[in-house]
Design a protein that fits this description.
Number of domains: 1
CATH architecture: Up-down Bundle
Low-confidence stretches: none
Order of helices and strands: HHHHHHH
Number of strands: 0
Oligomer: single chain
CATH topology: Ferritin
Largest sheet: none
Helix content: over 70%
Distance between the termini: 41 Å
Radius of gyration: 16 Å
Length: 159
């Protein structure tokens, strides 16, 4: 594995992670009705840090391989939807509008898992925790949207 490729992929992940710092959960999120199975707050940074290391590893393993076009396209797609979801859900507080983004993220992560597995076993396996986590996150997103039907989104001018 090329350490420079790993660093490039990890920097892309850091860009996605920065949205979490820009749009923190805060009191608004704490007041929302959530399902009783929501993970404790400390789990989220641990999970995301682990996932970002794993998918950077996966991208660095697959990037130099022949026939990687679909894998790299899915990698780019998942990081784009990953980056977009946080400002929509936490920034604009658009619980329902974040659902299609989450669905596309799930599809992109599934695409990454499949295409990376086709090229490199370890790279594909590195996406499995992400696929599981995004499945949980999608269920949580849907549950929170359903449990808070009257939640008013923020207008961009009020950010």
């Amino acid at each position: 594995m090329d350490i420079y490729l790993f660093a490039i992929f990890f920097l892309a992940c850091c860009g996605a992670a920065a949205t979490g710092a820009m749009f923190p959960t805060g009191p608004w999120y704490e007041r929302l009705n959530k399902p009783n199975w929501v993970p404790p707050n400390w789990v989220f940074p641990v999970a995301w840090t682990s996932i970002y290391f794993l998918i950077s590893f996966a991208g660095a393993r697959v990037a130099p391989l022949d026939g990687n076009a679909y894998a790299m396209a899915f990698w780019a797609l998942q990081i784009a939807f990953n980056t977009l979801w946080t400002p929509v859900f936490f920034g604009l507080r658009r619980l329902k509008s974040s659902l299609p983004i989450m669905a596309m993220l799930w599809v992109a992560v599934l695409g990454c898992t499949i295409t990376h597995l086709q090229l490199d076993l370890w790279a594909g396996l590195a996406f499995v925790p992400y696929l599981i986590w995004v499945t949980v996150a999608a269920a949580l997103n849907l549950s929170v949207a359903r449990l808070n039907p009257d939640q008013k989104p923020l207008e961009p001018s009020k950010l």
